Amino acid sequence: MKDVLKLEDAGLFILSIFLFSQLQFSWWWFPALLLLPDLSMLGYLLGNRAGAIIYNLAHHKGIAVILHLSGMYLQNQWLALTGVILLAHSSMDRIFGYGLKYFTGFQHTHLGMIGKQINQPE
Fold first, then answer.
1. How many CB atoms lie within 10 A of CB 84?
2. What are phi and psi of 84, to 5 degrees?
3. Is residue 119 part of a domain?
4. Which of 26, 32, 53, 90 has the most crowded CB, counting CB atoms within 10 A?
5. How many domains does the chain have?
6. Average pLDDT per 10 consecutive residues for the chain, totaling 122 residues
C-alpha cells in the first residue's frame, strides 16, 4: 500500500511541476522555493503541539490546492505559486515517508514513525 501512496504522490509532484509551468515565473523559482515549507519545523521550538499544528498547516495538500485555485481565480501569481510550492513540497515529503505530524512528537506521523528506531530491552 505504501508503494501505491508513493506513486500517487509522485503523480501530484509531476502535476505541481505542470501547474508551475502555467505561471509566469522563471524555472529557477521552483527549486529555490521547494524546501521553504520546511521552515515550519521551527514551530517545534514552541513545543510538540504547536509544532505539529504549524508543520501540518504548511504541509496540508488541501490548503495548497485552495491557495493555488484562489490565486488563479484572483489572478494573483504569487498566491498561485504558494499553492504550487506547498503541493510540490508536501508530495515530495510523502514520497520520502514524511507525513503529517501527531502531537506526540516530530517522528510520529500519519505514515508511521520516521528515523531510526532504538529497540528498548523488555
1. 28
2. -65, -45
3. no
4. 90
5. 1
6. 89 98 97 96 94 93 97 98 98 89 79 61 49
How far from each other are the two terminal CA atoms of the chain, in whole angstroms? 31
This prediction has a pTM of 0.86
20: CB partners within 8 A, 6+ apart: 29, 30, 81, 84, 88
Amino acid letter for position 48 = N
Q: What is the DSSP letter of 38?
A: G
Residue reference for cell 515529503: 93
Q: Which three cell numbers stand for residue 14?
A: 509531476
Q: Which of these, 88, 95, 70, lies nearest to 8 by C-alpha position? A: 95
- Report how far residue 40's alpha carbon sits from residue 36's, in angstroms, rounded to the nearest whole number: 8
Which residues span the domain enclosing 37? 2-104
